[in-house]
Amino acid sequence: TTILAFQHFQTIKKRFDGFPIEIDMLSRFRTPKQIEQSLRRLERGDTDIIIGTHRLLSKDVKFNDLGLLIIDEEQRFGVEHKEKLKN
Questions:
Q1: pTM
Q2: Residues whose CB is less than 8 angstroms from the CB of residue 23 and which lie 6 or more positions away in sequence, other chains included
């Protein structure tokens, strides 16, 4: 799933190139410093689109105003995961 998230990230970055949209990614492919920066931007609302793995369900991830969630069909999200995102 980490490789798939990275592929989605690359594709979306290309498709939105030239638009004023901030795109970021959370996964184990990121350094601790990159993750820290991404988490701050996400909480402030500076990130428009975030791509990631189950890492997005971690306790330290705080969405400023989550408006849309797309889950890849390969992901297995249980009731607990869905409730966390709903809240």
A1: 0.82
A2: 9, 12, 13, 16, 47, 48, 49, 50, 51
